[in-house]
Structures are given as C-alpha cells and as structure tokens.
Amino acid sequence: MEKEIIEMENKNLGMVEAEFMNIRQSTVRSVEGGHIELQQVGALSIDGERVEVTQGASVLMRGASLSLNQSIGILTAGNTTNLNFSFAPVAVSAEEAVVNKSAAGIIAAREINSNNSTSILMIGKNINGNVTTLLDWRSALAIGAVAGGIFGLFSIFKKK
Predict the structure, then answer these.
(1) What is the DSSP letter of 77?
(2) pLDDT of residue 139
(3) Facing residues of 123 across strands?
(4) Is the entire prediction scored with pTM above 0.85?
(5) Is the C-alpha dihedral spanning 11, 85, 50, 120 positive or negative?
(6) Between the CA atoms of 112, 116, 122 and 124, what dihedral angle is there, to the nearest 10 degrees?
C-alpha cells in the first residue's frame, strides 16, 4: 500500500483525505487522515490519528493525539489533548489533557495538567497545576438542581 502525502497552500478545499498531510493558509470542509498538520487553516471537521493545528480554527476535531497551538477548537475529542495558548469550549480526552496558558469551557479527562489556564468546569480524576475554574463539582450540581427546578416549575404552568 502506497502512503499518500498531500501538501497544499492557499486553497479552498472540500474534503481532503490522505495518510500524511500538511495544509497551510487554507479553508477545508473536512479533513481525514493519519498525520495531519494544519497551519492557519479553518476547518469544519478534522479526523485523524495525530492532529497538529497551529493558528487555526475548527468546529469538530477528533483523533488519538490532538495538539492545538494558538488555535480554537469548538469541540475536541481524543485520547490525549494538548492546548497551548488556545481556546476550546469543550475538550474531552480519554487519557490526558495538557492545558498551557489556555482558556477552556469544559475539560474532561482522566488526568489534567494545567499551567496558568482558566476554565469554567474541569472534570478529571487527577488535576495538577495552576488553574482557575469558575465552577467546582458542588456548584455545578447546585446550578443543575436550580435549573431543573425552574424547568419543572415552568412545565407545571405550561400544562394549565
């Protein structure tokens, strides 16, 4: 089986699929592959074994190893996730998440290592480092209970 290598620059692409790819200063609808390197790329969907994004943006990113450097990933899901000077509203990792001087909405991982980062909510078995969170598990539970009570109250009034 021949390994496919793609290198592109300044393109507006639909779907790109290859074993190894390096895309720069482009927009892509969907990217699938083994080793994916993106620099200054906007992508709707990224799916790969090893994904590295530098100064890019994506809506959905999945892979075994994800690395965002000065990037935005709306929904990231992988085995290991590295956020370096990046923003991720939702980041889920099966194993480890490393957050370095980044901002995140919700981070969930077995082990989270943070260095001067902020988040709304971090969920993990082990959380190490300097992190500022808005909610801990108790306050998240309280907010959920209040929201459920308000929703239940409105549903009672709606029936009448």
Answers:
(1) E
(2) 83
(3) 108
(4) no
(5) negative
(6) 20
